[in-house]
TrEMBL record:
Sorted UniProt keywords: Kinase, Transferase, Two-component regulatory system
Domain PAS: residue ranges: 140-187
PANTHER family in alphabetical order: NITRATE/NITRITE SENSOR PROTEIN NARX-RELATED, OXYGEN SENSOR HISTIDINE KINASE NREB
Disulfide bond among keywords: no
One Pfam family named in its UniProt record: HATPase_c
Regions that span the bilayer: none
Protein name according to UniProt: PAS domain-containing protein
SUPFAM superfamilies to which the protein is assigned, alphabetical: ATPase domain of HSP90 chaperone/DNA topoisomerase II/histidine kinase, PYP-like sensor domain (PAS domain)
Gene3D superfamilies: 1.20.5.1930, Histidine kinase-like ATPase, C-terminal domain (3.30.565.10), PAS domain (3.30.450.20)
Organism domain of life: Bacteria
Coiled coil: none
InterPro entries hit by this protein: HATPase_C_sf, HATPase_dom, PAS, PAS-like_dom_sf, Sensor_HK_TwoCompSys, Sig_transdc_His_kin_sub3_dim/P
Provenance organism: Methylocystis iwaonis
Keyword Transcription regulation: no
Length: 461
C-alpha cells in the first residue's frame, strides 16, 4: 500500500475522532480551512481567527510570529467543545505563506476536572449524609434522655472487702437475681473489671469510670460508675451508682466516625485543589519557560549562550518531572491512615479495659487499595466490638503472602445471630458490601453468648 495514502487515511481518522484538529489561516489572519471537530472553536471559514475568544487581541503576537518564526503554544485552554480543555499550537509556514493551527486534547486537565467534579459530588453526598445523621442523632439523643429519665440507675453499697450489703431493684433486675440473694456477693464476681477499678482508697470521693457489662440475658451494656466513700460513720462502706451510657457511647462513636469521614473528605479535597493549582501555575510556567528557552536557542549563534540555554532546558525538564511527581503524590491516599497495627493499638489505648492481641504475619506489604479496604473493615469491626459486644478480649490477626491476604477480628463478647441482625444495625451489611465491591469475601461467625469472628479474605494481592 502507498505509504502516503496510509498516512492520509490515518490522519483523516484522527481528525474525525477528535484526536487532533487542523486549521489554516492566511497572512491576513482570515480562516482559510478547518479540519476535524476539534477545530470547531475557530470562527467559520472566511472570518478573522481573532474573532475566537481564545485568540482575541492576539493580532500583534501573530504578526511577530510571522516575522520572526517559532511557535505560539496555548496550553490547557477551555474551548467551546462541550467544556473540553485543549492545547493550541500556532506556527507560520513561510513556504505556504499561511498560519497552521493545531489543536490537541489536554487529557491531564480533563482528568483533574473529572476528579474535582467527582470530589464535589462526594462532598455534597457526604454533607447530605451528615445532615441526615445529625437529624437521626438528635432524635436518638432525645429518645435516650427520655429513657434515662424514666428508668432507675443501678445503686450498690459494699464493704471494704468488696462484699455487697445493698442492691436496688434496678441492679437486681440487671443481674437477674432477687435483691436479698445479692447480699454478701463479691463485687468483682458480679461486675468483673479489668485493672481492678474497684480497688479504691477511702478518699475516693467522686471517683468514676466506665466499664462493659452483661445483664442477666447476656446483652452487652456500657455502665458509667460513680463511687463515693460513705465514711466511718457508715461502717467504712462505699456506694456505687451506675448509669447506662450505651446509647451515649454509640452516639459518640457515630459522631467520631462522621467527623473522621468529613476530615478525610476535606483532606482529599484540599489535596486535589493544591494539585490542580500546581498544574495550572507551576507546570504551565515551566512548560512556557522550556518553549521560550528552545526558541531563543534556535535564534542565537553564540555557543556559550546555547550551552547555557541547554542547561536551563535540562533543569526545567527536571523541575517539570518533579512537579508532576508532586501532583501525582498529592492525589494518593495517605498510607498512615491505613496502618492496621496503628488502628488496633489506638483502639487499645482508648479502651484499656479491653485486652487486644495482635498476630501479624506479613511476608509482603499490602497493595494500597487492599490496605485501605482492610483498614476500613477493621475500624468498623472494632466499633462494633465497642458498641455491641461488651468483650474483654479482642484478637486481630493479619496474614499476607503471595496467594493473598486475610484479616481476622475475633472477640469474646455477647455475640449475635448473623442471620438476624438487630433492627437498625447495618455495620455487618455495610462491611459485606464494601468487601464485595473490592472483590474480597467477608465471613462472620457468631452466636448469642459465643463471641464473634470476622474473616476478610482477598486473593492475588
Amino acid at each position: 500500500m502507498d505509504m502516503s495514502l496510509t498516512g492520509s487515511i490515518i490522519a483523516d481518522e484522527a481528525l474525525a475522532r477528535g484526536q487532533i484538529g487542523l486549521a489554516v489561516a492566511d497572512e491576513r489572519l482570515f480562516v482559510r480551512q478547518r479540519f476535524g471537530p476539534l477545530s470547531a472553536w475557530l470562527p467559520r471559514v472566511g472570518t478573522p481567527v481573532c474573532d475566537s475568544p481564545l485568540l482575541v487581541h492576539m493580532e500583534a503576537a501573530l504578526a511577530r510570529l510571522r516575522e520572526k518564526g517559532g511557535e505560539i503554544v496555548l496550553p490547557s485552554m477551555r474551548a467551546a467543545l462541550e467544556g473540553r480543555r485543549v492545547t493550541i499550537s500556532i506556527g507560520w509556514s513561510a513556504r505556504a505563506q499561511s498560519y497552521l493551527i493545531v489543536t490537541t486534547p489536554d487529557h491531564g486537565s480533563e482528568q483533574i476536572d473529572r476528579l474535582l467534579a467527582s470530589d464535589r459530588r462526594e462532598k455534597q453526598l457526604l454533607q447530605q449524609q451528615a445532615d441526615a445523621a445529625a437529624a437521626r442523632l438528635k432524635v436518638a439523643d432525645a429518645l435516650y434522655r427520655d429513657i434515662v429519665e424514666s428508668s432507675g440507675n443501678l445503686v450498690l453499697r459494699f464493704t471494704p472487702d468488696f462484699r455487697l450489703v445493698f442492691a436496688n431493684r434496678a441492679a437486681a433486675a440487671f443481674l437477674g437475681k432477687p435483691q436479698d440473694a445479692l447480699i454478701g456477693e463479691a463485687l468483682d464476681g458480679l461486675f468483673p473489671a479489668q485493672g481492678a477499678p474497684w480497688r479504691l482508697g477511702r478518699g475516693a470521693e467522686g471517683r468514676s469510670f466506665e466499664m462493659s457489662a452483661r445483664d442477666a440475658k447476656g446483652r452487652a451494656f456500657w455502665l458509667s460508675w460513680d463511687i463515693r466513700f460513705l465514711g466511718p460513720e457508715a461502717g467504712g462502706e462505699f456506694q456505687a451508682v451506675a448509669r447506662d451510657v450505651t446509647a451515649e457511647r454509640r452516639l459518640r462513636v457515630e459522631r467520631e466516625k462522621a467527623q473522621e469521614e468529613a476530615r478525610a473528605a476535606a483532606v482529599a479535597h484540599e489535596r486535589l485543589r493544591i494539585a490542580h493549582d500546581l498544574h495550572d501555575t507551576l507546570v504551565r510556567s515551566i512548560v512556557t519557560m522550556i518553549a521560550e528557552a528552545r526558541l531563543i536557542a534556535k535564534k542565537t549563534s553564540d555557543p556559550e549562550a546555547k550551552k547555557a540555554l541547554a542547561e536551563v532546558d535540562a533543569h526545567a525538564r527536571q523541575g517539570l518531572w518533579e512537579a508532576r511527581e508532586a501532583i501525582a503524590q498529592m492525589r494518593e491516599t495517605r498510607r498512615e491512615d491505613a496502618d492496621l497495627r496503628a488502628i488496633a493499638l489506638a483502639f487499645q489505648a482508648r479502651w484499656p479495659d479491653v485486652a487486644v492481641t495482635l498476630d501479624f504475619a506479613a511476608e509482603r506489604p499490602l497493595a494500597a487499595q487492599t490496605e485501605s479496604l482492610f483498614a476500613a473493615i477493621l475500624r468498623e469491626a472494632l466499633r462494633n466490638v465497642e458498641l455491641h459486644s461488651g468483650a474483654k478480649n479482642v484478637r486481630v490477626a493479619l496474614q499476607v503472602n503471595d496467594a493473598g491476604a486475610e484479616l481476622i477480628v475475633e472477640d469474646d463478647g455477647a455475640g449475635f445471630d448473623p442471620a438476624a441482625p438487630a433492627l437498625g444495625h447495618f455495620g455487618v451489611l455495610g462491611m459485606r458490601e464494601r468487601a464485595s465491591l473490592a472483590g474480597a469475601t467477608l465471613e462472620v461467625e457468631s452466636a448469642p453468648g459465643e463471641g464473634a469472628r470476622l474473616t476478610l479474605q482477598i486473593f492475588g494481592v
